[in-house]
Amino acid sequence: MSFIYAYKELPDDLEMNGAALTDWLDLPEINRVLNGQYRFYGNYKRDGQYVNFAKKGNFLKAKVDDGSYQYFEIFNVKKNLSSISITAKHIGFMANKNFIDKAFISAGNGIRIMDELRDNLAFRQKFVYKSNVSTVHQFTAKQVSPIDAMIGSNNGNENLTSVTSAELDMNNYELNLVKQIGQDNGFRIDFGKNLEAIEEEIDDESIFNSLFLVGGVPDNDYDEDKDPITFKYLEIEGVTDENRRIGKYENSECKTVEDLKKWGATKFSKDRVHEPKVTHTVSMVSLEHTLEYIHLWDKLTKLRFGDVATVYVPQLDINVKERMVEYTYFPTVEKYKEIVLGNDLSMYTTQVNAQAVEIKKKLDNRTETMVTNVLNATAWITGNSGGHVVFRPEKAPNEILIMDTPNVTDAKRVWRWNLNGLGYSDNGVNGPFGVAITSKGEIVADFIKVGIINAEVFESSFSATGDQLKMVKGVIEAWNDKKKFMEMSKRGLEFWNTQGESIGTIGTTDSSINPFPQVVPPAVPKPLDDTSLVIQTNGEQKTRNILISPAENKGFVMLGSGTTLHFGNLNVQGSLMVNGVAVGVPGTGSAGDTGGWNGNYPSIADTQAKKFGWEAWTTLRGLGYSEAAAAGILGNINGEAGPSMNPDTEQVGGPAYGAVQFDGSAYPLIGSPTDNGREYFQRLHKASNVGGDYKTMSVQMAVVNWSMTNGQWIGKINPTSVSGYKAMTDARTAATVFERNFERPASTHPERSNYAQYWYDLFKGVAIEKKDWVNPIRVPYLIWQEWDNIQDDGNKHGGIDITPKNGASSAVYAARAGTVYQVVPNDPVGGNYMVVKHSDGYYTYYGHFASMSAKVGDNVNTDTVLGMSGQTGRATGIHLHFEVWKGGEWQRINPRDVIKF
Q1: For the chain: N or C, fewer Cβ within 10 A?
Q2: CA-to-CA distance for 470 and 488, rounded, in angstroms?
């Protein structure tokens, strides 16, 4: 927690703390824009401590994203009945209170130009003018304030940042003209499909790959009728008549064709005019509280203002370098509220930028205690008892979470409240909820402790057939179809048949309340009706009970040996269990593993689309599909997801998602109809019991396999059975059969047969390498410590420490198929660690997770992400401590015995 400090005047020593303002109504914010505004906003209680400091002309000090404290001058204060709205701007803008009559440099580098501006000020100030720009430029500032000359309108002339292609950095009294704020540390961010928390804007209409260049009139050869020099056309590699986009650029300072071409090349190398203009606006609060993207949030929090990140744009299938050009920051909790990544830096250097950005953002139009700010602030509240309150989603929230940790992904103890009710879980936000109050007035609890319950009747209904349990004045009654068949009272437990006749009592008295001398077994019950079951006991064979039905060939017979024979239809209301495993029930059946996929590609898979295809091919082949049948499904993926073969594909303007475009809008296999294809596929993924990341091809193919036998396959054309399809020998026909029986189209797509034949010809006969064990780290890595190293405490190191080369947190995969055996948070040595149990006596151990995404009982395979590597517990850096046990718990062996690192 950081404080906001207030001052009536700027101190000489900027390290000195002022009056701490602690009574904010919501979280204060700092907004900074590249070569633009740098401002502080906050709503303070009218009766808060030191409220008298909230006056125009006073100053505030707050921590910003790089960890430094910056000063802001209050320039706007608005009051209402309960709060004071404060707006302040960075003290660097106080330099604009000065004036430059005229400053001119014919040829100077950055520091020479900054010195000229400082030397021509109307009066001296404390500001230091600095620069690291080494290139030489001509610059004029006339009758203008210094900040306006640098990043503003410059009295109608090109401003300094535009002339030098530089940026203005402000650090309290330092005004620093730099080549670039921030660094390029190799950050890579794959947003994939847009989230609610990410707004993506792409402008590919203004790109130019061919330039018509215009220079100046050559020196010593001036003729007012002579045209300036030109060069047509400067182009990047690969330009053809079909894709050529011509743009005109002028630079009057270029007096030769060679200078003009050299300058024109910078439009490609620096300004990247041949790339589309891309902007990503990221709501960090919303992203952090999204279960699926918490790791993306963690990566983005490491970016700082001006830093570079390489971003993949799936719509255009390109990578672009974007920079953090704007942020909104919560200084008291030291977290971003929102960041903006973009690659159109010209927007932040033009002479009209300051006005344009102000109009676009309208950041001065801040209302008193805006609802959105209250919601954002509430997402960071820590309650008095140590709980954490989250409203989600951030935009139009519809539920409240009260959790034991601030992150939704690793919270265990959770109260969840929405329109359907209020529930408590010890196992995370998705339950199960053992304590609940529903919107229908129902209370669910394992134990209720009260003083006095005052009610005439307590009732509990079990089914729609009329089963009911009542307690009336101390007597418990069981009813079926409006007929009482059991009663328990102080005299014992009594039973009735459907005719209302007493058929026996177990307890202290008989039906006439005469004491029993001892507990007497009930008599053989009379038949209830013609089709009821009758219990008969054979006295000579005491262990054999025979259950029969009077109606011939109806019902079932249970023999003494334990064998049961059933005749006719069996209608199970609820789950049918076989050896403890539910079968035939959507949502509980298992689809097994993800087939033959093992993370390896043959050399023929030389594009991303072919890699997706190979992953589908090997998964399906491992699940028992013939080569032709697998190719038939690949042909349909090619038609549904497109030539990219990307399984993480949403239908444009439609309700479908995934490799085969699962659509739950009309006849969903699981749950009610929905137009959200991604959410529908996640239902299927959960119901199938297939582990792993649902966005991957291997997981989706395993879910396709599960769906085949759980209602999706309709058998419209031959072969009508799933087993028949799996054995098909013609790829072209298989594509049509799969589409008609699985996809259920309104009209068929003959081209999918051609796609299927292509994939069949590509992969037919290619060997599928079988690999039981795989490396749990899939990014470039280093072995930090071997398993048998002697540590500081004299003990042998029990595993291998693996660290990504870039030092960043990375995904940790299961090294082998198995079941999650232990998930242990906050261990003093292992930190957050997990153990996976395998079928043949092996265990694998994964230590020091930053976060864990699997839970006890999950079936996992080598495509399952268990969590993100970190440095929790006894660790000096981000890494994975990986162990292999053989024959029992903690029976360590060298991991290199089973995995080639």
Answers
A1: N
A2: 10
Residues 6+ apart with CB under 8 A from 381: 388, 389
Could you tell me which residues come within 8 angstroms of residue 261 by beta carbon, excluding any fewer than 6 positions away? 213, 231, 234
CA separation for the pair 20, 275 (Å, rounded)? 48
CA distances from 555 to 445, 544, 558 (A): 37, 18, 10
- Residues with Cβ within 8 Å of residue 662, at least 6 apart in sequence: 656, 677, 680, 681, 684
DSSP 3-state of 261: helix
Q: What DSSP string describes 388-401?
A: EEEEESSSS--EEE
Q: What is the dihedral of CA 500, 505, 509, 515, to 10 degrees?
A: 120
CA distance 64 to 70: 7
Closest CA to 293 of 439, 194, 147: 194
Annotate 651-669 with DSSP letters as a single string: PTTSSEETTTTEE-SSS-S
167 vs 356: CA distance, rounded Å? 17
Other Cβ atoms closer than 10 A to 485: 18
Q: Determine which helix (DSSP H) or strand (DSSP E) holds 726, and give its type and residue range.
A: helix 722-726
Q: Could you tell me which of 359, 366, 344, 275 has the C-alpha nearest to residue 34?
A: 344
Q: Between β-strands 468-472 and 534-537, what pairing exists: parallel, antiparallel or unpaired?
A: unpaired
- Complete edge-to-edge strand list for the sheet that includes strand 210-214: 230-235, 210-214, 246-250
CA distance 366 to 439: 37
Mean pLDDT, residues 805-825: 90
Strand partners, 142: 102
34-55: average pLDDT? 92
User: Among 95-109, 210-224, 572-586, which range has the highest average pLDDT?
Assistant: 95-109
Q: Which pLDDT value is given to residue 384?
A: 37
Query: Tens digits of per-residue pLDDT, 553-574?
Result: 444 444 444 445 555 555 554 4
Query: 695, 864 in Cβ contact below 8 A?
Result: no
Quote the CA–CA distance of 714 and 724 in Å, as a whole number.
13
Cα–Cα distance for residue pair 281/521, rounded to 1 Å: 76
Beta bridge partner(s), residue 468: 461, 479
How far is the C-alpha of 167 from the C-alpha of 268, rounded, in Å? 19
Q: Are 618 and 726 in contact (CB under 8 A)?
A: no
Digit-coded pLDDT (tens) for 597-636: 556 678 899 999 999 999 999 889 888 899 999 999 999 9
Q: With left for phi above 0 and alpha for psi between -120 and 50, is residue 261 left, alpha or beta?
A: alpha
- In this structure, which amino acid lies at residue 538? N
Residue 838: closest CA among 867, 814, 811, 813: 814
Q: What is the predicted pLDDT for the residue at 435?
A: 85
Cβ(151)–Cβ(354) under 8 Å?
yes
- Gap between the Cα atoms of 381 and 372, Å rounded: 15
CA separation for the pair 215, 15 (Å, rounded):
51
| DSSP tag of 879 | B
What is the chain's length?
A: 901
Contact 465, 480 (CB under 8 A): yes
- Dihedral angle sign, alpha carbons of residues 195, 198, 201, 204: negative
Note the pTM of the prediction, 2 decimals. Answer: 0.45
Tokens read off for 469:
């349990």
Q: Which residues contact 769 (CB under 8 A, 6 or more apart)?
A: 598, 600
Identify which of 360, 350, 357 has the alpha carbon closest to the alpha carbon of residue 150.
Answer: 350
CA 176 remoteness from chain centre: 38
